[in-house]
Predict the 3D structure of the following.
Amino acid sequence: MASRQVPTPRELVAFEVATRDLVGLALRSVEGLSMSLPQFRLLRVLAETGGLGATQCAHALGIAGSSVTRLVDRLEASGHLVRQPDPANRSAVVLALTESGSEVVEQVERRRREELAAALGDLTADERAQCVVALERLHEVMAAAEDPRVPY
């Protein structure tokens, strides 16, 4: 196992700036939808999983269960998701996307891909390949630090 190295200030700043850039992209992608980024993130989790209970959604989003309840209430009222009985546990519910919720996820992801494609188009193929390797490895490291029981 490689020894842990301390990142340089320049490296930390570069990742902080990239994080701000990507958060900005995420925020721009939901503009005009009458939806917050946390609400969209919940829809995205449901799109990935096909439906989950509120507790599982809270774990996936890294937020408190009461926060998920507020998000669900708003998204249900706007017609983007529904609460359905859990066939495995009649006292529980599963959250699932409606057609409207699925359309929002597709629209936002299309916006993000278009903006990313434009930015990545200004990089050389070698620069893009280096970014991919670094980002995939960073994701591996960060995902390993998360709760291994949560698969998303």
